[in-house]
Structures are given as C-alpha cells and as structure tokens.
Amino acid sequence: MIQTSAGFRGLVQSQRLGSFQSKLGACYNYASGAASSLQHACEPSTYSDGDYADVDWDNLGFGLLPTDYMYRMKCFKDGKFEQGQLSRYGNIELSPSAGVLNYGQGLFEGTKAYRKENGCLLLFRPDQNAIQMKIGAERMCMPSPSIDQFVDAVKQTALANKRWAPPPGKGTLYIRPLLMGTGPVLGLAPAPEYTFLVYASPVGNYFKEGLAPLNLYVEDEYHRASRGGAGCVKTISNYAPVLKAITKAKNRGFSDVLYLDSLNKKYLEEVSSCNIFIVKGNVISTPATNGTILSGVTRKSIIEIAQDLGYEVEERVISVDELVNVDEVFCTGTAVVIAPVGSITYQDKRIEYRTGAYSLSRKLYSTLVGIQMGLIEDKKGWTLEIR
Ligand SMILES: *Cc1c(COP(=O)(O)O)cnc(C)c1O
C-alpha cells in the first residue's frame, strides 16, 4: 500500500503536471482526453482502489487534513477561465493588493464525495453548487466558471485525492471550491484577474456534538445579513462578522447561533453556516429566501424529499415567537447534513424539542444520506458516480 502510493507520487513529481492531468483523466475513465504513452503507470498494479491515506478514520472531525492535490484555473480580463490543472496541494502566492485580500472579493462552496462499497466516489448535486457559485459571482462582480468547468474541477480534485476519501460510513471527502479576485487593485473596483481553486479534506461530523442535538442561541445584537446585502450568496465576507456571535455563544455552552432579521429583530433567518427548519404536526416550515439567507443545496433537497414523503412544506416568514410552539427543529447544510436541534435559548428562555430515533429529522437524515451514499435508489439524478 505504501509502495504503490509512493510510486504514484514519484510518477507525478517526475512529470509535468499537464501530462499528469490528462493521464489521470484517462486512467479514471471519465475525461475525454486521449490516453498518453504513460497510461500504463495508472493501471491497478500501480495505483489501486484499495489504497488509503494513513488517517485515523474513526476520529475524524471537521478540521483540515491537507491532501495531495488542488485544482487551479485562472481568468484574465476577457472573463473566460482558461484550462485549469491539478498541482500539489500547498500554499499559493498572491499579490499583497489582491482584490480578495483587500476588499473581500471571494466566494466559497462546499460539497462532499462519499466512498461507496464498490470503491467508486459519489458526488451529490455538484451542478447545484456550480449554480450557487454563479449566482454569487454575479452579485460580487466576478466572472465564474461554467457549470461544466466547475463540476469537472470537483471531479478531478476528488479523484486525485481519492486515497483521502474515508471508508464508507466513516466520513466524507469534503471538497472546497473557492473563487477569488487575485489580480491587484488599489482603488475600489473589481479585481482584474480571478482564480478558481478547489481543494479537499476528509471530514467527519461538523459539530463536536457529533450526532447529538444542538443547543442554539438566538442572537439579537449581532446580525448576519441585511436587506440588499449579500446574505443570499456564499461570499467569504459574510463569515468573519459572525465569529463574534459564535464565540460569545460557544463560551456560554451553546453549539451555534440562530440569527434574526436585522430590520425587525423578530424573524428567523438561519444559523451561522446552515439553514433552519421547524416542524409542527405534519407541516415543515423554513424561512423563505428574501435576499438575506442562502437557499442552500441541502435546504432545497430536503424540501423535495419531505414533499415526496408526503409532508407539507412551507417557505415563509417565521417569527421567533413561533419557537415556543413547535415540535421539532433541525438545521441543514452540506457540512452539517441534517443536525437535530435539542434546544433554543431566546432572551434567557430555553425551549426544548423532540429529537431521537422517532423524530422527523432522523427520517429525513436517513433518506438524504441514503441517497448520498448510494444506498437508496436515486430517482432524481442527484448523484454522480466517478471513478
Ligand atoms: C453553506 C451554507 C449553508 C448551507 O448550504 P448548502 O448548499 O446546503 O451547503 C447555509 N447557510 C449558510 C450561511 C451557508 O454558508
């Protein structure tokens, strides 16, 4: 096992990355690139599917574990991204006056690859992440990769780092696409050059609670987003401002923060990095997207799954006062998947909710993860098997 991966590395180091990339595509059988004369080096005797990185798979959290490769693609003034390529994972060089460093012109995405029992990797709706990034790029005055370019980059990054994809049931390979203004600017303006970069890290549970219910704190001093702002896109500039609220809540023993709308300080928006749903009887509700919350690939998928299971789903304005009167609350997002909420504290009043084996969130979780892992038939064409 060690020998084969060392052989694989040696091969990569000895080749120019461009030729490595086309060969990787040919070997894994999804890219259309012609097989190069080096194709033999990728055959199973050199790189086997059973090859795993040296990781303690039983103790994965959500910390970064650096992997082997990252993918990079640049866009100059014409607004079109050139052919991207894989390179060794590592630090990148940036101009001190890069738009992303000075004015926060940047977006991120998150998607996951699940390793199936048959050894293949399964991606979940990567095209939806591509669309989410496209919408964000439009808001942030950035060019964005095409959907095909985005999905291809995610596939290449996942496959190149396949040995870091946890065994089935132990976690996932989290894939992080970034879009950044990397060209130099001084006067406030869109950057003259952009970089799309994708890296990956094996992850387990997002919250240290694991699958235990979350205890949320309703924040009414700090806000996440405001009307007309950029709360509806995954721009990096939405996140540093909530660190203060998260830190305050964590210091008081809470798992995360539930934000209210900044205008009325009354209506539910979302949690720091995930969407929120409430359940009352047979009706599931989630805040409607009105410009201040992310529409979320997981949120949209859960709405469809719940409807398919026969539940009524409402996207509407939800007042914080309703929280005293609901059966269940849960959060959704790529990183958290579906996290049950055990309690919400608002103005020093703690409200508790149903969780556990018979909760609706557990049922939705099993269905979603079943599809993502390839254990439940995917009737919607949401998953993409790559090898
Ligand atoms: C990423 C994120 C979500 C979840 O979106 P998914 O597309 O489901 O991963 C929700 N809210 C915020 C603020 C986020 O950053």
CATH superfamily of the largest domain: D-amino Acid Aminotransferase, subunit A, domain 2
Number of strands: 17
Which architecture of the largest domain would the CATH scheme give at its second level? Alpha-Beta Barrel
Please give the oligomerization state of what you see: single chain
Shape: globular
Q: What's the CATH class label of the largest domain?
A: Alpha Beta
Q: How large a portion of the residues is in β-strands, by DSSP E?
A: 25-35%
Largest sheet descriptor: 9 strands, mixed
Integer count of domains: 3
Q: Total number of helical segments?
A: 8
Mean pLDDT: 88
Could you tell me the radius of gyration in angstroms? 22 Å
Distance between the termini: 19 Å
Cofactor: pyridoxal 5'-phosphate
Keywords: Amino-acid biosynthesis, Aminotransferase, Branched-chain amino acid biosynthesis, Pyridoxal phosphate, Transferase
Family: Belongs to the class-IV pyridoxal-phosphate-dependent aminotransferase family.
EC number: 2.6.1.42
Task: Give a verbal description of the structure.
This protein has 387 residues and is α+β, with helices and mostly antiparallel strands. The chain has three domains: 1-51, no CATH class; 60-203, Aminotransferase class 4, branched-chain amino acid transferase, N-terminal domain (D-amino Acid Aminotransferase, Chain A, domain 1), CATH 3.30.470; 214-373, D-amino Acid Aminotransferase, subunit A, domain 2 (D-amino Acid Aminotransferase, Chain A, domain 2). It contains eight helices and 17 strands. The strands form two sheets. Strands 8, 9, 10, 11, 12, 13, 14, 15 and 16 form a nine-stranded mixed beta sheet that branches. Strands 1, 2, 3, 4, 5, 6, 7 and 17 form an eight-stranded antiparallel beta sheet that branches. Helix 6 (243-251) links the parallel strand 8 and strand 9 (256-260). Helix 4 crosses helix 5. It is globular and about 55 Å long. It binds pyridoxal-5'-phosphate. Pyridoxal-5'-phosphate is lined by residues 110, 234, 270, 273-275, 294, 296-299, 333-334.
